[in-house]
User: What shape does this take?
Amino acid sequence: MPRPIIVQEECSACGICVDVCPEDVLELVGDVAEPVKDDECTACAACLEECPMGAISEIEED
Ligand code: SF4
Ligand code: SF4
Assistant: This one.
């Protein structure tokens, strides 16, 4: 399953990745974005491309 890897120290909690994810994988938890439904990630990379902080380092495939 693919999942976005979010570098917590870089996340500004802007919520853009939450809004752009077509599968609603991401949510703001406290002041950081986290994948909460990572079994539904399709590795589209929209979150990675739109993050203004570069906080999503990769879409990990395992
Ligand atoms: S790669 Fe696509 S489906 Fe997966 S969390 Fe990011 S925006 Fe959502
Ligand atoms: S788009 Fe980037 S900075 Fe904004 S909430 Fe998502 S991971 Fe954090």
In short: The chain has a mean pLDDT of 96. The radius of gyration is 10 Å. The CA atoms of residues 18 and 26 lie 5 Å apart. The beta strands are 2-6, 26-29, 32-35, 56-61.
